[in-house]
Design a protein that fits this description.
By secondary structure, the chain is α/β, with parallel strands linked by helices. The protein has 15 helices and seven strands. It has two domains: 194 residues, Vaccinia Virus protein VP39 (Rossmann fold); 81 residues, DNA polymerase, domain 1 (Orthogonal Bundle). The longest helix is centred in the last third of the chain and has 19 residues. The structure holds S-adenosylmethionine.
Length: 362
């Protein structure tokens, strides 16, 4: 065995950066090591920012209120992300409850699973599933045996096909994904123009743009992001090769020469959002989830969905209303719930969030 105490630790310089504060992802070494630099990470949060490599869960109190998790219940978090919501729901399901966490992201999911394990959530109460939430019925069927073998804490007999008592979907991408330049989601940081939540499947945004016709791109920009300059932008971008996020952002600015910078920046954000939705087929996945929800919920079960733009919210609202008319749901949110001013100020990423919920008939 080697004598560790006599082995000198090699001195490692901290990453150098210009100015007082680090700006690039690779310079933010303190934010990426919260265990070691807890006080610095708290300062970042207090300044209204999200430390890189983490995600601040949105509308936690409101979600806990509408989902009302109880001991012995089965929960599904369709969009596990950093596990921020899951971490709050899990203790409330004990004793006897379980949470299944789904996510398509093969890079972040193992990190989140390890993080939740390190907080003490063992495999008997929390399981992580790399799956699109469009496949929720299959995930539930695959774990049916373990769900049916609920140890204690529930009085009512279980269905033959076990469902969930509460289901959460917090749509879109996580801060870890947005802030990681190689993932290619970021408007602010240069990276390859990728945008896939699962980089092992489908085509990156660069290829989509290279192959798409101008008329198809114009409808995509309108449908996915209500972009007012869809035609002009589609003519400028369709069929072109953009290798990086920066080159696409520059081309959008160049295509809108008479607009002020702030307005053009908004178009950049909307184009990025529209492409991300298309690359990840987000609307089809949401439509499948909404169709499958009644099958996946136990009688009396609750679902909460957090959306971040009108295309998502419209789908959730219409689907909940249609299922209420059919008596599939006993009750749904009458109006959308928005984050409070304090949360919007402290976490600007929550600003566009809208929460809707529904309760399955018994
Ligand atoms: C907004 S984040 C969720 C954050 C999480 N609630 C938390 O508090 O940490 C959305 C996550 O959902 C995942 N996701 C998006 N669409 C998905 C889909 N169709 N199926 C499964 N996961 C999806 C993304 O990869 C991302 O990790």
């Amino acid at each position: 065995m080697s004598d560790v105490s006599s082995t000198p630790t090699p001195h490692r310089r901290r990453p150098r950066y210009h100015g007082k504060h680090p700006r690039r992802f690779d310079e933010k070494y303190k934010e990426r090591d919260p265990a070691r630099y807890a006080a610095d990470v708290q300062k970042v949060i207090a300044s209204g920012k999200t430390p890189v490599g983490t995600h601040r869960p949105i509308m936690v109190a409101e979600i806990l209120e509408v989902l009302s998790p109880k001991p012995g219940e089965i929960a599904v978090d369709c969009t596990l992300g950093y596990g921020g919501h899951a971490q709050e729901i899990l203790p409330r399901l004990q004793p006897g409850g379980k949470l299944l966490g789904l996510d398509v992201d093969p890079i972040e999911l193992p990190r989140t699973e390890a993080r939740l394990r390190s907080l003490g959530f063992g495999p008997e109460i929390f399981t992580a599933h790399r799956s699109n939430f469009a496949g929720l019925p299959q995930v539930l069927a695959s774990v049916a045996a373990s769900l049916l073998a609920k140890p204690f804490g529930v009085d009512a007999p279980r269905n033959a096909t076990p469902g969930a008592d509460l289901i959460l979907a917090d749509l879109g991408v996580s801060s870890m994904q947005i802030d990681d330049p190689p993932r290619g989601f970021s408007v602010k940081h240069e990276g390859p123009l990728d945008m896939r939540m699962n980089p092992q499947r489908g085509q990156p945004a660069s290829l989509l743009l290279q192959k798409i016709r101008a008329d198809a791109l114009a409808s995509l920009l309108t449908e996915n992001a209500d972009e007012p300059h869809a035609s002009a932008l589609a003519s400028a971008l369709a069929g072109k090769a953009f290798a990086t996020t920066g080159s696409l952002a520059a081309a959008i600015h160049a295509a809108l020469p008479h607009r002020d910078k702030e307005a053009a920046d908004l178009s950049v954000r909307r184009v990025f959002q529209a492409l991300r939705i298309a690359v990840n087929d987000e609307f089809s996945a949401l439509d499948s989830l909404l169709r499958n929800l009644p099958l996946c919920l136990n009688p009396g079960g609750r679902v909460a969905i957090l959306t971040f733009h009108s295309g998502e919210d419209r789908r959730v609202k219409k689907s909940f209303e249609a299922d209420l008319r059919e008596n599939v749901y006993a009750e749904i949110a009458l109006t959308v719930i928005r984050p409070g001013a304090a949360e919007r100020n402290s976490n600007p990423r929550s600003a566009s969030a809208k929460l809707r919920w529904a309760r399955r008939s018994t």
